[in-house]
Design brief:
Layout lengths: L1 H44 L5 H6 L7 E3 L6 E2 L1 H14 L4 E11 L3 E13 L5 E15 L2 E9 L12
Parallel strand pairs: 1-6
Antiparallel strand pairs: 1-2, 3-4, 4-5, 5-6
Protein name: SnoaL-like domain protein
Pfam family, one: SnoaL_3
Keywords: Signal
């Protein structure tokens, strides 16, 4: 009788653990897809089109963006205004994530990676890009939405100090 009970407990625990691992894997895959959508939106933004970028981000007032030009923006209104300014530069090129690391919780996720590619600088010359980036995602209405993005600085994009 004890052996049967032990086997039942073992199989029940195995099923619960398998379902938990499967759910965690599904959430990690969903966050990876959200991050890939961000990079598709970023590359589209380099052409001047922000439609995908607007869909990737949460539109709440607690979002933050610290991009390669040295700015620090918080609140959807300010974050989208900075993306609009960048889109107007039409930097062209592409940037892709490399060595993506993902940590997922029930409602928040962190993605850390390199951003590697090429863009035009403000003067029109082609520039190599290799910077570190951290993205934060929150589950909103069942979908992972970006709530924060922070990158290293790119000297050719940094704001010039006022004289």
């Amino acid at each position: 009788m004890k052996k049967q009970l032990a086997l039942i407990v073992f199989f029940a625990t195995s099923i619960i653990f398998a379902n938990t691992v499967s759910a965690a894997d599904q959430e990690k895959k969903a966050v990876r897809n959200a991050a890939k959508q961000f990079y598709a939106a970023l590359n589209q933004m380099f052409t001047g089109d922000l439609d995908l970028m607007k869909n990737v981000w949460s539109h709440k007032e607690d979002v933050t963006y610290m991009g390669p030009d040295g700015g620090f923006h918080h609140g959807w209104k300010h974050v989208i205004a900075d993306w609009e300014k960048q889109a107007a530069m039409k930097l062209g090129g592409t940037v892709e994530p490399q060595e993506m690391r993902i940590t997922v919780g029930p409602e928040l996720a962190i993605v850390s990676n390199y951003e590697i590619g090429k863009n035009k600088g403000p003067e029109g010359q082609i520039r190599n890009v290799k910077i570190r980036a951290t993205s934060l995602f929150r589950k909103e209405n069942g979908k992972w939405k970006m709530i924060g993005h922070h990158t290293d600085l790119l000297p050719f994009l940094m704001k010039k100090p006022r004289s």
